[in-house]
From TrEMBL:
Signal peptide (residue range): none
Species name: Branchiostoma floridae (Florida lancelet)
MF (Gene Ontology): oxidoreductase activity
Name the UniProt record assigns to this protein: All-trans-retinol 13,14-reductase-like
Name of the coding gene: LOC118429429
Source taxonomy: Eukaryota, Metazoa, Chordata, Cephalochordata, Leptocardii
Domain Amine oxidase: 87-599
Record-annotated membrane-spanning stretches: 12-31
Any Pfam family the entry gives: Amino_oxidase
Length: 618
């Protein structure tokens, strides 16, 4: 070990030598290791085609996104089976399909899409998890990736330039616009905080530095595990990227060093609700990545609603001979006598069905995969409890869905979101709320609300649902408030459960109507989902919508390299937000890392090459 430390010290003193050594190591790996076959390039050609008209016939859409499981629908000679049809599952399946692989995706819910699905009640359509996504323009990496995985069929509408509004205070709230674009973002902040230019400039500079460090982080995550561990163990990773330097400070610590203005600190940390970890616990890298994701190129919404994502990715999977089947709850990952993952077991009331495949990919999340789907003796053998000890469950969430009478013009609704806080100490407000008992949950204001009007973001909504608008309000809450009903049947959880959730819903709606009084008397549909709702529909073990918690410990170098796509169990892989970060783009990049491992090639490099070609043609 002393020898390794001395070598590391020598390399650290000479960055040029470091680069040479890393290159030599990579070369040795390529030449001498016993490598599995290298898959085809899924991004060898630009597969975009002219966008077809929006499909509005619900029966035609259901044939794609609600294709029910039957053994006769399972393709023969599968190359892989994917557990879960969230964007992480669909993303890796589509990339594998583009590389010529036949993949089966199994979904326990009655429609595909995970948090990308929508539901229709009383002639109102609601999204459940897609509220906006950044950088969906030009030849950004996000745009190129989505275009390739949907063959250019998924179209996007840009939100207002003022994409978010931050509201501080319960009564007579102070409102702060968040405007897209580097200069516009700064100008809007300066108009509200004219004496804080130095702090604002410092914040913007840090965003730029973190953004620059991201490619090094992605590069580390794309390397063979042994090489990544070597770089982290020796400290050489810090010459490769500054990512972990910025991850070593919380959002609160970073902002405290920039300014004493509490309102400004609240405004600059407002979107922690997008990943669910309060500023004092969240790494600045996570926050900075998310903020810059939106403010550089704005926010976008899928035209036709969130279900368009699954609707256009599934045909890509099917084209290669694969399938996406719903109402197919997987209750076990099969392990053969040699300890290799070899398929999954689907639970059916008529008798469980085993489906075999040489590769198993789980989009069910880290906890579900390691604690529920794998046999316990397998998890213990590979020390998977050690991986779980380094992370924790994310916080639970509730979602209020409200159907409104009137168009967006009649109701004065904009294509933007509102983040409403009862005070400017976001940490204190969150801690106080999380410490309440279930009995007190609805008795006073909720300190954080994300208020969105999906119908105002989609230009086809008025055509599809004339005279109607929708509002979705989300907040975080302890799973413990609703835990006693987790095993009860959905819609059959009793009056006590209903009273509790409606007390919280009524408080949320009262706060929402203070900010939007014009919608108060326009309600035609009113329902709320709780953390146990999330557990039932999206398989979230503690009602979390962002997977494992996005705290500082998760983003340390030691932990990050353990959240790999390739697991210690041979032929078992992970995908989705738990191996990268949350959100639509984060989970999709998780699928990129998964495809990287399964296909045994640098898929990120393939994508960057295609992006370069597309940019040149423009």
């Amino acid at each position: 070990m002393a020898f390794v430390a001395n070598v590391a010290a020598s390399l650290m003193s000479s960055p040029g030598l470091l680069v040479l050594v890393v290159a030599l190591i990579a070369l040795v790996l390529m030449v001498t290791s016993n490598r599995k076959p290298r898959g085809k390039n899924p991004f060898a050609t630009d597969c975009r085609r002219p966008a077809a008209p929006l499909v509005t016939d619900q029966s035609a859409r259901d044939r794609v996104i609600k294709n029910g499981f039957a053994i006769k629908k399972v393709p023969e000679t599968l190359d892989a089976v994917v557990v879960g049809s969230g964007i992480g599952g669909l993303g890796v399946a589509a990339m594998m399909a583009k590389a010529g692989k036949r993949v089966l995706v199994l979904e326990q819910h009655d429609q595909a899409g995970g948090c990308c699905h929508t539901f229709i009640e009383k002639s109102f359509e609601f999204d459940v998890g897609v509220h906006y996504i950044g950088e969906m323009c030009g030849s950004t990496l996000n745009k190129v990736l989505f275009d390739q995985l949907t063959e250019g069929q998924l179209q996007w509408e840009k939100l207002d330039d003022e994409l978010d509004v931050v509201s501080l205070g319960a009564e007579n709230p102070r409102k702060f616009p968040i405007v897209q674009g580097n200069e516009a973002f700064k100008k809007a902040l300066l108009e509200k905080f004219p004496d804080e230019e130095k702090a604002i400039d410092g914040f913007l500079l840090l965003l730029k530095k973190v953004r620059k460090s991201m490619m090094g982080y992605v590069g580390l995550r794309s390397m063979p595990q042994w090489l990544a561990k070597l770089l982290v163990k020796t400290g050489l990773v810090n010459y490769m990227t500054d990512y972990f330097k910025y991850a070593g400070k919380s959002v609160k610590q970073t902002l405290d060093e920039l300014t004493d203005n509490q309102d400004l600190k609240a405004v600059l940390s407002y979107s922690f609700g997008d990943y669910g970890t309060p500023p004092k616990d969240a790494p600045f890298t996570m926050h900075a990545t998310l903020i810059s994701h939106y403010y550089y190129n704005g926010g976008y919404y899928p035209i036709g609603g969130a279900s368009e994502i699954a609707f256009h990715m599934i045909p890509v999977i099917e084209k290669a001979g694969g399938a996406v089947l719903v109402r197919a709850p997987v209750n076990q990952i099969l392990i053969d006598d040699s300890g290799v993952a070899c398929g999954v077991r689907v639970h059916k009331s008529s008798g469980d069905i085993d489906i075999h495949a040489p590769i198993v990919i789980s989009d069910a999340g880290l906890y579900n995969t390691y604690q529920s789907l794998l046999p316990k003796k397998v998890a213990l053998k590979h020390g998977l409890d050690n991986v779980l000890s380094k992370v924790r469950h994310g916080v639970g969430a509730v979602s209020l869905f409200v159907g409104l009478r009137g168009t967006k013009e009649e109701l004065g609704l904009k294509a933007q979101n509102c983040w409403a806080f009862t005070n400017n100490d976001l940490d204190a407000g969150f801690e106080e709320y999380a410490s309440r008992s279930a009995e007190d949950a609805g008795k006073s204001d909720v300190p954080l609300l994300f208020i969105s009007f999906p119908s105002s973001k989609d230009p086809t909504h008025d055509q599809r649902y004339p005279g109607k608008s929708t509002c979705t309000v989300i907040t975080l809450c302890p799973y413990e408030w609703f835990e006693q009903w987790e095993d009860e049947r959905v819609m059959k959880r009793g009056q006590e459960y209903k009273d509790l959730k409606m007390a919280v819903a009524a408080r949320i709606w009262d706060q929402t109507c203070r900010l939007y009084p014009q919608i108060k008397d326009k309600v035609e549909y009113f329902e709320m989902g709780t953390p146990v709702t999330n557990k039932y529909y999206i398989g979230a073990p503690r009602g979390e919508i962002y997977g494992i918690d996005h705290n500082m410990a998760r983003f340390s170098a030691d932990t990050a390299i353990q959240l790999n796509a390739e697991t210690p169990v041979p032929n078992l892989y992970l995908t989705g937000q738990d191996i990268f970060c949350c959100g639509l783009a984060g989970a999709l990049f998780g699928s990129l890392l998964s495809a990287n491992a399964v296909l045994n090639r640098n898929v990120m490099f393939d994508l960057l090459n295609l992006r370069k070609k597309i940019a040149k043609t423009k």
